[in-house]
Specification:
Radius of gyration: 28 Å
Largest sheet: 8 strands, mixed
Number of strands: 17
Shape: globular
Strand order of the largest sheet: 5-4-6-2-7-10-3-11
Strand content: 5-15%
Number of helices: 21
Distance between the termini: 75 Å
Length: 653
């Protein structure tokens, strides 16, 4: 007779429901406190001018946020423990609790560096296979992150051991009063939900007294904070809410891009209105590099052709910058264009005029989604975005591809784009181009700790790396310009050399969000290199405000388009002497931003920060909310209400 145990009869020891309740509550409370500890630096950004009511709302919101973030780990661990026993409970509470703590730390760390919380855009970026082409994380950064994750997991493991002691101390009470855990659970849950609804009431109370402050506080808590949208709940809009209520949201559900508004109409084709078009776009080509010692070829092109001393991008990131550059419309239309896969009028015009294309990029054009937006109408065979090697080697290959294309004998005009990536952090270049020193060694570039500390000597060494990388790219620009001349196209080719966005090195010592780009709308992150060659025109220097949207507005008439500009652009021709505008409009995922160079106004447009207003001075120091918006900027904001919706197709019935 077999002595083997009947495994079919072996039962998994379940944890009694009352024990799950008690231990689950304990772990929930400890995890919420741990999350609050990890997120504590958020309090440093609460403005001193907040009213007492707004401070109370923020404090309650902070507590509720920590509790809500910790709840799923406790609930799921309890369920697993009840059905699968103590081992499953301990494993789950450690894994889910550590995961929650790491997420809370990652969120606040990202906020400390870039000035905004983890959201859909960040998660999309991190999970996109093409991200590695544009986002490079050094070995030191990886080690730094790994050590901190290990420390957080170890800290959570130590905290996890505490309930064992509590279980022993309270075992007698559990036996004598088995209903105590249930009673305690009801009391704690009731208290938390009371706090949750109390926070909503205080939010309303605070909004009625200080709407702008309250919306700023809500934006500070981030997209994971649960609250009720003030616009739907209350009937007391401030100036920015009045503006927003007039302007349909350009990334509204199901909206599509309708640009141009009417079919493009062309003058009779001739050599004069079919010029070759050549774009050279420099990743992180910040305006500070527009110097003869850094970029002599670009500097010469600007001095002999066109320069713009106050040229702004369409945003502080590549996605919104290049969108504005090629579409010539406000970057707030990005989502509509992506949703409807509508290409820019500039490419449509080139296609209809019989141009041949070459789009060469040192990074994958699937991220950001330019194959589905800016270049969706360019034949696949004319796109080259798979060079190999280091960034500077890829730039050389990209340049070779464009030069080969330009040099081809063909009667059709060409439309060429070269996107060069070396100046993206960590700023790569061959040793021969190390003109500016000292530099931070490549292996020591650590955006994680350096982005938070912003130490001046480190920032100077990183700036030197950037200058060296731009100097290398400038050499590629020189090669391309020479190829245009050698091929005989110089007198019929428009050349645009521009940075996609700027790059900052804690230039004003402000700290958070002021390292690199995509963190703030300072002039350092938004003003770019700009140089242009327009055949048979005198050298021109533009000192007024210009922006990326103005470039398409300038090129389309030169390509023979006779439609009124309002049919296809929000920009203003670079040849217009005195445009009637005081500001340029930029955008990110979460804000629409107006600047006149002296003041910057940011208005939230996401669900968690919609209507939140911040006004900054020329040094990007906060000066107030809606009531601090200068009158000329207010005029442009109101005028832009219709312009932000002009190119939206009607929603389907």
């Amino acid at each position: 007779m077999s002595t083997q145990p009947d495994t079919a009869r072996v039962k998994i020891p379940r944890i009694p429901f009352r024990v799950v309740l008690y231990d689950g509550l304990w772990f929930w409370g400890v995890l919420a406190l741990f999350v609050a500890f990890l997120q504590r630096t958020l309090w440093r950004d609460v403005p001193d001018d907040f009213s007492a009511t707004t401070h109370i709302f923020f404090g309650l919101g902070y507590v509720v946020f920590c509790g809500v973030l910790a709840a799923p780990a406790a609930v799921f661990s309890g369920i697993l423990g009840h059905f699968f026993g103590p081992r499953a409970f301990k494993t789950a509470i450690f894994a889910l609790g550590a995961g929650t703590a790491v997420f809370a730390w990652a969120d606040i760390s990202f906020y400390d560096i870039y000035g905004y919380h983890l959201d859909g855009m960040v998660l999309s970026m991190l999970t996109n296979p093409a991200t590695g082409d544009s986002v490079v994380v050094g070995h030191k950064t990886i080690l730094n992150i790994a050590l901190r994750v290990i420390a957080i997991c170890a800290g959570w493991g130590l905290l996890m051991a505490m309930p064992g002691l509590s279980r022993k101390l309270l075992r007698k009470k559990r036996r004598s009063d088995p209903h105590r855990p249930l009673t305690l659970s009801v009391v704690v849950a009731s208290a938390f939900f009371s706090l949750f609804f109390c926070e909503k009431i205080v939010f309303v109370w605070s909004y009625l007294q200080h709407p702008a402050q309250t919306l700023r506080a809500r934006a500070l808590l981030g997209p994971l904070h649960i609250t009720l949208p003030a616009q739907k709940l209350l009937d007391k809009p401030s100036a920015p809410q009045e503006f927003l209520s007039q302007a349909p949201e350009t990334d509204a559900k199901d909206a599509a891009l309708d640009c141009p508004l009417h079919p493009l109409v062309f003058q009779k084709a001739s050599e004069g209105n079919r010029p070759n078009i050549l774009f050279v776009v420099i990743e992180s080509g910040h305006a500070a590099a527009m110097r003869p010692d850094v970029a002599p070829n670009i500097w010469k092109l600007a001095q002999e052709g066109m320069s713009a001393t106050r040229h702004y991008s369409g945003g502080n990131s590549t996605r919104f910058a290049l969108f504005t550059l090629f579409y010539g419309i406000y970057p707030t239309y990005w989502h509509a264009a992506l949703r409807s896969r509508t290409g820019p009028p500039l490419i449509k015009a080139a296609t209809e005029r019989g141009y041949r294309f070459c789009v060469a990029s040192s990074t994958d054009l699937n991220f950001p989604e330019f194959r589905s937006t800016a270049f969706v109408d360019v034949p696949e065979a004319d796109i080259f975005d798979k060079p190999v090697g280091e960034a500077w080697q890829r730039d050389a290959e990209t340049t070779d591809r464009v030069i080969s294309f330009i040099s081809q004998k063909n009667d059709a005009p060409f439309f060429a784009v070269a996107f060069l990536d070396s100046p993206h952090i960590p700023y790569r270049y061959p040793p021969a181009f190390e003109k500016f020193a000292p530099v931070l060694p490549l292996e020591d570039v650590d955006v994680f700790t350096q982005g938070v500390s912003g130490e001046p000597h480190i920032m100077e060494q990183m700036r030197n790396r950037s200058f060296n990388a731009i100097s290398y790219v400038d050499a590629q620009v020189g090669r391309i310009v020479q190829a245009v001349k050698d091929s005989g196209h110089w007198n019929n080719t428009i050349i645009i050399v521009v940075g996609d966005h700027g790059q900052e090195f804690s230039d004003q010592g402000i700290g958070k969000g002021h390292i690199g780009h995509n963190g703030a709308f300072t002039p350092f992150q938004t003003k770019t290199i700009f140089a242009a060659h327009f055949p048979n025109r005198r050298a021109t220097r533009i000192d007024r405000l210009t922006c990326h949207a103005d470039i398409a507005a300038t090129l389309l008439p030169l390509m023979g388009v006779s439609n009124p500009p309002s049919d296809y652009t929000n920009g203003v021709s670079l040849f217009e002497k005195a445009p009637k505008r005081h500001t340029v409009l930029m955008a990110s995922w979460g804000e629409a931003v107006w600047t006149d160079g002296a003041h910057t106004v940011q208005i939230g447009r996401n669900s968690h920060n919609r209507g939140a207003v911040e006004v900054f001075d020329e040094n990007y120091r906060p000066v107030g909310s809606a009531d601090a918006i200068p009158k000329p900027i207010q005029v442009d904001i109101e005028a832009d209400a219709g312009a932000r919706a002009r190119f939206l197709a009607p929603k389907p019935e």
